[in-house]
Design a protein that fits this description.
By secondary structure, the protein is of the alpha/beta class. The protein folds into 2 domains: 178 residues, Metallo-beta-lactamase, Chain A (4-Layer Sandwich); 127 residues, Rossmann fold. It is built from 8 helices and 19 strands. The strands form 3 sheets. It has a 7-stranded mixed beta sheet, with helices on one face. A 6-stranded mixed beta sheet has the order 1-2-3-4-5-6, with helices on one face. Strands 14-13-15-12-16-17 form a 6-stranded parallel beta sheet. Strand 13, helix 4 and strand 14 form a beta-alpha-beta unit. The longest helix is centred in the middle third of the chain and has 17 residues. The chain is globular. The termini are far apart.
Length: 339
């Protein structure tokens, strides 16, 4: 894709990614007047901005997480202009309501991905390649060692693991981030195996999507829930919940963790769980390369993750690639709880 205008549309500042022509920030990490938000994870959608613009499916998520904010929603592919700069949201495949942000001015096109994955998870709209001159990409798993297994096989393995625990009269504690991963896990659980419970952080977040997405029956775990009721059940909780005293009420249980980091032995040992499931809401190495190629871009900017190594590889393959520091975190092995 040939560049028509050399004027850079976006710059990296102390507050976030800034479009000076429109006087608007993309996923800023400090309070600003106007913010365009790619998705609802805490490192990309922060409290304190005067105005938020996001995909329409992300509006309820932001309100749930941030409270009373001024926010407007746009459909995928819907264009809107700010000071003659054209913006639009496009599916990133990351989590429900997540989007890439396309920015265009006088023929110059930049795409900010936020976070994304290439494999279709059966719950969110799949990643949509968007042609551009400059592609701003995460690189959370930007080294060749990361190749994800078939997600269908992973969900099948989770249900088999739960069924075995159920047969033995044990509870199954399955850990996944409360926004995105938890809904993905819940969507594919087999309720015929046993009852499904959710930690309040997961259950309250999932309730935001009731009516728009299909989930098997579940109920929040409460102080009144007995050990007897939990025997053979599956409890879906955020990773940080393993520090909580409520684990004692689970009785005899086995733990599992679903994350891309479960691909490495070191991460599995660090989490000290009984079962590891390799399931990520971020692109693996082949996915990152496929995304870059599909944009037909000339320039690539890598953010959060294996930025230097990924940019170096891209330069060796002919792209004009560089890194930029941001406050985005990607998928962490020890994340703070997302409530």
């Amino acid at each position: 894709m040939k560049k028509k205008n050399p004027v850079p549309l976006l710059e990296f500042t102390s507050k976030g990614i800034y479009c000076s022509l429109a006087d608007v920030y993309l996923d800023p990490w400090r309070p600003v007047a106007k913010a365009i938000i790619s998705h609802g994870h805490a490192d990309h959608a922060r409290w304190g901005h005067k105005q938020y613009i996001t995909h329409q499916d992300n509006v309820a998520i932001l309100k749930h997480r941030l409270g009373a904010i001024v926010v407007s929603g746009k459909a995928y592919g819907e264009t809107f202009s700010i000071n003659n700069v054209t913006f639009s949201f496009h599916p990133s495949g990351h989590v429900i309501g997540a989007a890439q942000i396309r920015v265009e001015h006088r023929g110059e096109v930049w795409v900010f991905t936020g976070d994304y994955k290439i494999k279709n998870d059966g719950l969110t709209l799949p990643f949509e390649p968007v042609k551009c001159h400059t592609f701003i990409t995460e690189s959370t798993f930007g080294i060749p060692v990361f190749h994800w297994p078939d997600p269908v096989e992973v969900h099948t393995a989770i249900n088999h693991w739960w069924a075995a625990n159920n047969k033995a009269g044990r509870a199954s504690l399955l850990l996944g981030y409360s926004l995105g991963k938890a809904q993905r896990l819940l969507h594919f659980l087999d309720p015929s195996i046993g009852p499904i419970y959710t930690h309040s952080a997961v259950g309250n977040m999932t309730a935001v999507f009731e009516g728009t997405h299909a989930f098997p029956p579940y109920q929040n775990l409460t102080a009144e829930t007995s050990k007897k009721a939990l025997a053979g059940s599956l409890i879906l909780a955020p990773p940080a919940a393993t520090e909580a005293s409520w684990l004692r009420k689970l009785g005899d249980y086995r733990s599992g963790f679903a994350s891309g980091w479960m691909h490495t032995r070191g991460a599995r040992r660090r989490r000290a769980v009984d079962q590891a499931f390799v399931l990520s809401d971020h692109a693996d190495w082949p996915g990152l390369l496929a995304a870059v190629k599909a944009t037909q871009c000339e320039n690539v900017i890598t953010t959060h993750g294996y930025t230097d190594l990924f940019a170096q590889y891209l330069r060796e393959k002919g792209w004009n690639a560089r890194t930029e520091k941001t406050n985005y975190e990607g998928e962490s092995i020890d994340p703070k709880p997302t409530l």
